[in-house]
Specification:
The complex is a heterodimer of chains A (271) and B (311). Chain A is mainly α and 271 residues long. Helix content of chain A is 77%, strand content 0%. Chain A has one domain. Chain B has 311 residues and is α/β, with parallel strands linked by helices. Chain B has a 6-stranded mixed sheet, with helices on both faces. In chain B, strands 11-12-10-13 form a 4-stranded antiparallel sheet, with helices on one face. The chains are: A mainly alpha (271), B alpha/beta (311). The interface between A and B is medium-sized, with 27 and 33 residues. Chain B: It comes from Micromonospora endophytica. Chain B: Keywords: ATP-binding, Nucleotide-binding, Transport.
């Protein structure tokens, strides 16, 4: 199995795809960090009312948590794309034949892709988090807030984002096995992740108004991207379920897509 | 080339038994059985769409058979302990990531199969691709892609080689290289199974042939035997302005004379010197006198007549 994981990591290292995705992840930090720093300044300075950031959410720890995870909303998209490409590349470039000749045990191939994807997700999380930590600590120290790293809110946000990275890469591999068409899989997953959340939020809001029952809003957690947001959002309110519900839903999706992916791949004719 | 381990003699024999593959509307392969022996080059022939590729893919566990089974050395492909050390396969030319270099393509396979990394360099040298090792696959010519595919197949120094249309896209020099390479492998005692529809090439390369059409076995055996089994044997081809005179001169002998649409005589049952002597005795002027042997192409076309085409 370790041979297979090594082979999967070598596949990624020997093409330029991961570079482009890494650049994307760094660019999203570059865009999100200044914005989040400005948010921190406004909210903690008492001007959060203007954009609806009040109470706990406007506290220094909550805003520091947001700052320390800058760019990781889009970062998750990029690690998911890596997971997808790890599978769809095999069909797009017709290397599935070579891969399954070297290892006819297809379950082992998919499992090693899942492991390699998780390792990569971890690496992406680590690098972006280190950058955010360095930038954030400097910004906070310069503005006399201290680093806030002792706060549980901050630590929690970092750890939950780590979990999100692991789950989304696995989900990416799963999606790739379900939709082997490269372009189809990438577009579907991006739309589901980026646009889906807003649309689903609106749909559930409409449904909740129609049923005159705000508790219905909590059900948007069944949407993977919404579950991910809920998981990493601190605090519980009448609009959203607890973070662990989001985590369970997301893990459920990762498991189901992974298992269905293995079963489909075992049966598929490679031609 | 071999690792010195004693092996049972049949460990490189390919046995296909009652193999069938039903796709939605078409039975691509229908109850196909044949064997492929070690130490020989076996040509796997059939018209386009005969089911050659599907059969090879079933042999390698890439396509699941509807019924029947295929074994290599008595075992199904997925049951081989170290498949790449046992079997090497070249299935299609374009099977590497376009953005990956040739050497890295081979290293990825080495890693997956647990082969030492330097096998990648050795295999690349074996097919003469070392100068292009660090070039990306998308910059390879069709012939270079075929060579890379062969290098990939040779990574594990396998006893059995399976190649699907390896001559496609090769220039004459490349085809000659391939012929020598495959004959050399068979001479070392390996099993070489090559599918092709280039019949003249196969006649030069193959010791045995397996001919299929419409998913079914048509004929299997050594090339000479398959050719010899055909009704039409050796014929003498004669061009002459005095066809009638020559036909009369030969009428007493054992030969039978046919005239084709261009007025050329095709004489069976006698050899060329006999025909020449008869012509001289009868004072018949000859413009051409050649011996025509049936070749693989003629035999193939005769055997698969009416079975080719789109299904």
């Amino acid at each position: 199995m370790s041979n297979l994981v090594r082979s999967e990591l070598l596949k990624i290292r020997t093409t330029s795809t991961w570079w482009w995705l890494a650049i994307g992840a760094l660019l999203s930090i570059g865009m999100a960090f200044p914005f989040n720093a400005w948010m921190f300044d406004s909210a903690v300075g008492g001007g959060g009312d203007e954009f609806g950031v009040t109470g706990d959410a406007a506290s220094a720890p909550a805003q520091a948590a947001n700052l320390y995870t800058s760019g990781q909303y889009l970062g998750l998209l990029f690690v998911m794309l890596i997971g997808i490409l790890m599978v769809t590349n095999e069909f797009f470039h017709q290397t599935a034949t070579t891969t399954f000749l070297a290892t006819p045990r297809r379950t082992a191939v998919i499992v090693s892709k899942l492991i390699a994807a998780s390792l990569l997700g971890f690496a992406f999380w680590l690098v972006t988090t280190v950058i955010d930590l360095a930038g954030g600590a400097i910004f906070l120290a310069l503005n006399d807030y201290g680093t806030q790293l002792g706060e549980w809110d901050v630590q929690r946000a970092l750890l939950l984002n780590l979990m999100a990275y692991a789950i989304w890469t696995v989900l990416g591999v799963g999606i790739g096995t379900l939709i082997t068409n490269q372009l189809g899989a990438v577009i579907t997953a991006s739309v589901l992740y980026l646009i889906g959340t807003q649309v689903v939020g609106l749909l559930f809001f409409a449904l909740a108004s129609w049923l005159d029952n705000m508790a219905v809003l909590k059900w948007q957690v069944i949407w993977p991207a919404a579950a991910s947001q809920i998981m990493i959002t601190p605090g519980e309110n009448e609009m959203l379920p607890a973070w662990w519900v989001g985590a369970l839903v997301l893990i459920g999706y990762a498991l189901v897509s992974g298992i269905v992916g293995v079963l489909l791949t075992r049966r598929r004719d490679i031609s | 080339m071999s690792d010195g381990q004693p092996r049972p003699t049949n460990d490189a024999q390919i046995v296909v038994t009652g193999l069938s593959k039903q796709y939605r509307n078409v039975r691509a392969v229908n109850n196909l059985s044949f064997t492929v022996e070690p130490g020989r080059v076996t040509g796997f022939l059939g018209p386009n769409g005969a089911g050659k590729t599907t059969t090879l893919r079933m042999l390698l566990n890439l396509v699941t058979p509807t019924t029947g089974q295929a074994t290599i050395g008595g075992r199904r492909y997925p049951d081989l302990a170290d498949p790449l050390r046992h079997v090497g396969a070249v299935l299609e030319a374009s099977s590497a990531h376009k953005g990956r270099t040739g050497i890295n393509h081979l290293r990825v396979i080495c890693a997956a199969a647990g082969l030492p990394r330097q096998r990648a360099d050795e295999a690349l040298a074996m097919v003469g691709l070392t100068p292009a090792a660090k070039r990306k696959f998308k910059g390879y010519s069709l012939g270079m892609k075929q060579r890379l595919g062969i290098a990939a197949a040779m990574l594990g120094d396998p006893r059995v080689l399976i190649l699907d249309e390896p001559a496609n896209g090769l220039d004459p020099e490349g085809i000659r290289w391939m012929r020598g390479f495959l004959k050399g492998l068979a001479a070392e005692g390996r099993t070489v199974l090559v599918s092709s529809h280039l019949l003249s090439e196969m006649q030069l390369l193959a010791d045995d042939v397996v001919i299929i059409a419409a998913g079914q076995l048509v004929r299997q055996g050594p090339v000479d035997q398959v050719i010899g089994s055909m009704a039409q044997g050796v014929r003498v081809r004669v061009r002459t302005p005095q066809a009638e005179a020559l036909t009369r001169a030969l009428a007493d002998g054992p030969g039978t004379v046919e005239t084709d649409e261009q007025g050329i005589l095709l004489i069976a049952g006698v050899d060329a010197p006999t025909v020449g002597r008869a012509a001289l005795a009868a004072g018949v002027e000859l413009h051409e006198l050649t011996t025509e042997r049936p070749d693989l192409e003629r035999v193939f076309l005769e055997l698969t007549a009416g079975k080719a085409g789109i299904r």
